[in-house]
Structures are given as structure tokens and as C-alpha cells.
Specification:
With about 400 residues, the chain is an alpha+beta fold. It has 13 helices and 21 strands. A hairpin with a 2-residue loop joins strand 13 and strand 14. It binds flavin-adenine dinucleotide.
Length: about 400
């Protein structure tokens, strides 16, 4: 049995950056990964091109019971630091939109970069290695695995959240945290499509595939981006973003016309084309199928000349404040992230070390810090992994 200085549980984004940093300090580092290869989520991220960070990353892009916790780590390892590494490795990238940086070619290049950096830093990586339990001894941690016992002076838990179980996600990190007397903020699926109840599914099922730019709001948060009707409910970037704020029972307010002064153009159409039916006119500004459906179930459809100024205001109010109560989310099967996790109360915000157990660290998605859609979750993995890697 080899005794390592640092044992890192999880060969994902956070674990690998932490390993590189600790290895560069001359620490003997072991990364344990239960899957057959490291960085599986990096490989599937961003449609295979990995949205590896965001130019506009700030602490405001993260959810946590303590919104201040992420500030220190994000300030000490910024998007520019990760971009510098990407550039050093000659990986071509581009900004897609809203500051989101993607590889020009493939996410494989990010995993190769991290693997090369690990090799240069002398990090040992064990794949197909499943850890079943961990104990703390006087001056080290002992881990039992299908490959026997492993020991480390420091133990870094980088085992991720519960999202996408078929990629190897487990609740093991939370179990370890509880074992070492840490509190868990209740985990729930984030960045996830929302589903409708049976009645709304019937009401909107013909709209499956319809997509449009909206502004969606819930719990004093709002996002402007695309929304997509699906067979089960609604999805698209705007909905994924708001899903992280949505709780069962909440109603979403959707503005179908965020960029136009809808009352003005409806009045203008009423003057210029008084015989046109409302659904025809709405079909010029909204996807036709959506305009038609709304006029079948929620808006009275008549020739424009028949609408009073108050009627037109009500039509606009409905289009700018379409209210829908999703029944649920699609759950961890399709969620990009897990909200909640190891409470930041028990962790140092500068090092990610446990305040209760010296030598124990939690980094990445297992911690109660969750980013918006757009490269922020990887940035948290890099920043928190870097922080722990300076001291573990
Ligand atoms: C489909 C999809 C697309 C995404 N796209 C993006 C994107 O483009 N940009 C972005 O910023 N974020 C994206 N995310 C989110 C991002 O992938 C995660 O936030 C990030 O990977 C978290 O890094 P992590 O290292 O904390 O956890 P993970 O990457 O989940 O790594 C944890 C690792 O620990 C291993 N592990 C778990 N339990 C054990 C155990 N008991 N023993 C040994 N190993 C264990 C797992 O196999 C896994 O490899 C996406 C997520 C999904 C699901």
C-alpha cells in the first residue's frame, strides 16, 4: 500500500485541477476515479465542445445558501487563469454568445490538457476504482476500494453531484460529508427541463418543437433566452436557467414578446388591417402554432376591429405575462447540475478545507455552490479545485 500526501476522490473537472496544483507543489497525489476514464462529463459537455468558462463570470452567477462563499475562490482563480492554460496548450476556442467559451474542435482537448498537466505534475490516476468507505486515523485517511486500501494525509472529495447517474454520478460525496458531521443542503436537480401536469400536456402537446425568444421570471429572477416546448413540458436555455430557482408549486411568468412594444404594434395593425383576425396578426410576431394555440385556449380570436383598447391591453398582458405552473422537473436523468450539497458553513472559503476535520476538503459540484448555464459550473470546479490544490 502506498501512502499519498493527497488522495482525491473523483477524476472530474474539480479533482483534476486540484491534483495538478497539489502535484506542482511536490505533493504525491492520487486521483481515484470509479469510471473507466477520467473527465467523462467534460467530454459530453457543451454538446461535445465543452463550454469551459464564461468571460463574464462573477459571484452573481452562482446559487448557494451563502452567496458570498464562492467569492474568494473565484477571485483567486479566474476565467482568465483557465483561458491562459487553454491557450498555453494551443487549444482553439471561440465565444458562442453571452461570454460562453467553447472549444473550436472537441472537449477531448480539454481532457487531454488536464491529463498532460497531471502527468507533468507527477499525479497518479487510478480509474475503475470504486471507493466504498473512508476512515480517519490520527494523521491520515484510509479508503477502502475494489483495489484495496489507499491512504492519504489529505482527502479531497471531488465526487460531483447526482446529475446524470448513467455518467457515474453517486451520492457518495454526501455520505462522506455526513459521516464527518457536515451538513447537507438538500440536493435537487438544476438546469433541467420542466414538466407539465396531465391537463397542460394535453393543452400544449401540439406545440412540441416550437421555440422562441422569451423572458422568463420566477422568485425575483429573470432570464432572457430561447424557450422550447417539448413533449413533456418546456425546456431551452431560458427554462434551464430559471429551473434552478423554481420550486414545486411556483408559477413561471413568461413574456413571449420581450423585445417589442406589443400594444403599439397591435394598435397599428388594428388601424391598418381591421379585418385581420387576431391569431393571424399574432402569427407575425410569434411562432404561428403558438399564436394559433393561444387563440384557441386563452385568447378570444376575432377580427381586430372588434377589440376595444382595454381588450388589446388584456391580450398584451397575457402575451407578456403567460403564467404556467410546471408540475415537476425532468429530474437528475437530464439535469446538468445538482443544486445544494455540502453546506458551505462547514468549509473554509479560501481553501475548501473542512472546519471540523483538518485535512478533509470538498470541491466542485458536491459543494453547495451551483452556477448558471454557460460555463459557470466548470469555472466553479476550476476555482474551487485550485483553492484546495494550494494547501491540500
Ligand atoms: C450533459 C451535461 C453537460 C454539461 N455541460 C456543461 C458545460 O458546457 N459547461 C459547464 O460549465 N458545465 C457543464 N455541465 C456541468 C459540469 O459538467 C459539472 O458542473 C462539472 O463536471 C462538475 O465537476 P466536478 O469535478 O465537481 O464533478 P464531476 O465532473 O461530476 O466529476 C466527479 C467524478 O467523481 C467520480 N466519482 C463519483 N463517486 C465516486 C466514487 N465513490 N469513487 C470514485 N470516483 C467517484 C465520478 O465518476 C466523476 O468522474 C454539464 C453537465 C452535464 C450533465
Amino acid at each position: 500500500m502506498i501512502h499519498y500526501d493527497v488522495v482525491i476522490l473523483g477524476g472530474g473537472a474539480a479533482g483534476l485541477i486540484c491534483a495538478i496544483e497539489a502535484g506542482k507543489r511536490g505533493r504525491r497525489v492520487l486521483v481515484i476515479e470509479r469510471s473507466e476514464k477520467i473527465g467523462k462529463k467534460i467530454l459530453i459537455s457543451g454538446g461535445g465542445r465543452c463550454n469551459f468558462t464564461n468571460l463574464q463570470a462573477t459571484p452573481e452567477n452562482f446559487l448557494s445558501a451563502n452567496p458570498h462563499f464562492c467569492k474568494s475562490a473565484l477571485a483567486r482563480y479566474t476565467q482568465w487563469d483557465f483561458i491562459a492554460m487553454v491557450e498555453r496548450h494551443g487549444i482553439a476556442y471561440h465565444e458562442k454568445e453571452l461570454g460562453q467559451l467553447f472549444c473550436d474542435q472537441s472537449a477531448k482537448l480539454i481532457v487531454k490538457m488536464l491529463t498532460d498537466e497531471c502527468r507533468a505534475a507527477g499525479v497518479r490516476i487510478e480509474t475503475d476504482c470504486v471507493v466504498s468507505s473512508a476512515q480517519r486515523h490520527a494523521d491520515n485517511f484510509a479508503l477502502q476500494s475494489n483495489r484495496g486500501e489507499m491512504r492519504g494525509t489529505s482527502l479531497v472529495v471531488a465526487s460531483g453531484g447526482l446529475s446524470v447517474p448513467k455518467m457515474g454520478a453517486t451520492g457518495f460525496g454526501y455520505e462522506l460529508a455526513r459521516q464527518f458531521a457536515h451538513t447537507i443542503e438538500p440536493p435537487r436537480a438544476g438546469l433541467v427541463p420542466l414538466t407539465f401536469d396531465a391537463d397542460d400536456r394535453v393543452r400544449y402537446r401540439d406545440l412540441s418543437g416550437v421555440s422562441l425568444a422569451v423572458q422568463v421570471a420566477c422568485r425575483r429572477q429573470s432570464f432572457s433566452h430561447a424557450m422550447l416546448f417539448t413533449h413533456h413540458g418546456i425546456s431551452g436555455p431560458a427554462i434551464l436557467q430559471i429551473s434552478s430557482y423554481w420550486h414545486p408549486g411556483d408559477v413561471l411568468s413568461v413574456n413571449f414578446l420581450p423585445l417589442s412594444d406589443s400594444l403599439e404594434w397591435l394598435k397599428e395593425r388594428q388601424l391598418s388591417r381591421p379585418e385581420s383576425e387576431l391569431k393571424t396578426v399574432l402569427g407575425e410576431f410569434l411562432p404561428k402554432r403558438l399564436a394559433q394555440r393561444l387563440c384557441e385556449i386563452q385568447i378570444d380570436n376575432r377580427p381586430l376591429r372588434q377589440y376595444t383598447p382595454q381588450d388589446l391591453r388584456e391580450v398584451c398582458e397575457l402575451l407578456q405575462n403567460w403564467r404556467i405552473r410546471p408540475s415537476d422537473t425532468e429530474g437528475y436523468r437530464t439535469a446538468e447540475v445538482t443544486l445544494g450539497g455540502v453546506s458551505t458553513d462547514g468549509l473554509s472559503s479560501t481553501t475548501m478545507e473542512s472546519k471540523k476535520i483538518p485535512g478533509l476538503y470538498f470541491i466542485g459540484e458536491v459543494v453547495d455552490v451551483t452556477g448558471h448555464l454557460g460555463g459557470f459550473n466548470f469555472q466553479w470546479a476550476w476555482s474551487s479545485g485550485f483553492a484546495a490544490g494550494q494547501v491540500a
